[in-house]
Structure formats: C-alpha cells, structure tokens
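Q: Start with the shorter request: fold the first protein.
A: Done. Sequence, then structure:
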Amino acid sequence: MLPSKITFTDWIHLSQRFFLTRWMQLPGVYALAHFPTEVPSGKADPLIREIIYYGESQNPLGIRLRNFIHSANTGKHAHSAGRHYHDIFHEIKDFLYIAVCDSPDILVAEANDIRHDLKAHLIDGYNIKYSSYPRLLRAKPDKK
C-alpha cells in the first residue's frame, strides 16, 4: 500500500547529488529529468514531461546512482537504464537532474514492496498523462 502523501525533494543537478546526503545513504525511489533551459523550483512534480526515468533501489541510492553514471558515460554493465542513456546520449548531459522521494515510509529499509509499488504507480501515472513512458524505459515494467 502506498503512503497517502508522496513528496519529492527539489530538483538537484546530478553532479550535486551529494547535497542529498541523507537520501544517498538509504534505499529509495528517484526520478531523473532533462531540463535544458529552466529547472522548476520547489518540490519536484514527479509527473512532469521532462522525466526520462524512474528508479528504485533496495540498497543506498548513492551506489545505484554511481552505477547509473558509470553506465551512462561508458556503456558498460552496471545499470541497465544507464546503458540505455549511453545508447541515446553517449554521455551524461549537463542538464540531467534528480529528485528523490522524501516520504518517510519510502525511506525505511523494509519498504521494498512499497518502493516497487511507488515506482510502478509513477510510471502508470506518467503513461496515463502522456500516453507514453519515460524515455529510458524500454517497455512497461513488470508489476509484482
């Protein structure tokens, strides 16, 4: 069951993700988006068109993002969406931003099912709103 109120951090440039120290040490759900011109201010809206990927991690997010960056820059195996990013863009673009779900129910280590359900909920919401999936999702993900 999803928490009643889902919130995300502000959008942070991916290179500045270490300012999200609290979240980088915990498992969680995150969104990646491209903002080539203007970055929205305030808490991130997790259903905006610029989102290119929703991710979840059962391990610390910092490790998962390090794997994404490695794959996105090199095309090597570490993160499948990172490899797909590399296939499309060849390297991390300067306008890649991250927002992390900061709802307390998502941040506890035992919440794997909740995180998975939240990611599926976000993907479905994006699909309903735009009749498509975020760019780095190759196909509709499996539900548990």
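Q: Next, the second protein, separately.
A: Sequence, then structure:
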Amino acid sequence: MAKPKSKKSMTYKQLKRAGSRIKPYADSDRDGVINKKDCRPFDPKKQGRLHDFAMARLRAKEQKLENARIRLTKKLETQRETLNMKRAVRNKKLSISQIRLKRKQVLIDEIKREKAKFQKLSLANKQAKRELFSHSAMGKASAASQKTLDATRVFLNKPSTKKAISRFNARVQYLIS
C-alpha cells in the first residue's frame, strides 16, 4: 500500500479529489495566495505558478531599479567630482586675482611713498631757493641754504632719481588705464 500524502504536500486538485472540504477562495496557509491558485494550499513556503511568475517579475524590477540606482549614484559621484574640480579652479582663480590685487596695492603704496618723497624734495628745493634769494638779495647768502640747494639739484639730476621718476609716471599711467 502506498503511503498517504500529508495535507501539506498535496495540491488543491488532489485535496478536492481526496474529499477535503477546502474553501477555494480562502487562504489556509496565510501566504497571500488563495487556495484555488496556490500549488500547495497548506504549505506557506510554496505558492502557485502565478505567484512564482509575479515574484520573478518583482525580482527583475528590483534588479532593474538596483542597476538604475547604481548608475545614478555613479553619475552623481561624477558630477560631485566635476563640481569639486570647478570649485578648486574657481578658488585658484580667486587666489590669483587676490594676489594681483595685493600686488597692485603694493605698487600703489610704493608710488604714494615715492610721491611723498618727491614732494618733500620739491618743498625743500623751493624753501632753499627762497632762502637763497632772500639772503642773496640782501647780500648775505647762507652757506647752509646753498648746500641744501646744491644737494637737491644733485639728487634730482642723478640718473637713478630720473629713473625712479619715470617709473613712477609709468606706474601712474598703468593704474589709470
């Protein structure tokens, strides 16, 4: 005699033929598939073919979504790297422009110092001339005034002073333009 099958291993049709009073639209094993479509109505681990196909379709969709997520993650990472590179370039450009501004400010400060020095020399020259002419008019030329005037003339006639004045004028023209 053949060994009787357990209810767990029997299909819906086998259970109906065996005289079991199984309800076709109930879910005896509580697996989410009604008994009529369940290949093993009392086995919660086994569902019907339709359920298996649906699960295969879900797995395929999940795989597709996972591939899309990976692709988008790579794209996002690439965009982040590009953005970081652009930021680095922008920061470098910014630092270059800041260096240029600092250099320009240094030139401006140097020009101001040279201008102030030049103005002091011009003022000393004018004062020495005034003293010289005022004393010479009276016939009492001051030796100190004469020395100051001579020193100012010598300084202004030096090639280095002339170069400094021409550099000053060139820098002023550069900054104006």
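Q: Describe the second briefly.
A: The mean pLDDT is 79. The chain has two domains: 9-46, 48-176.
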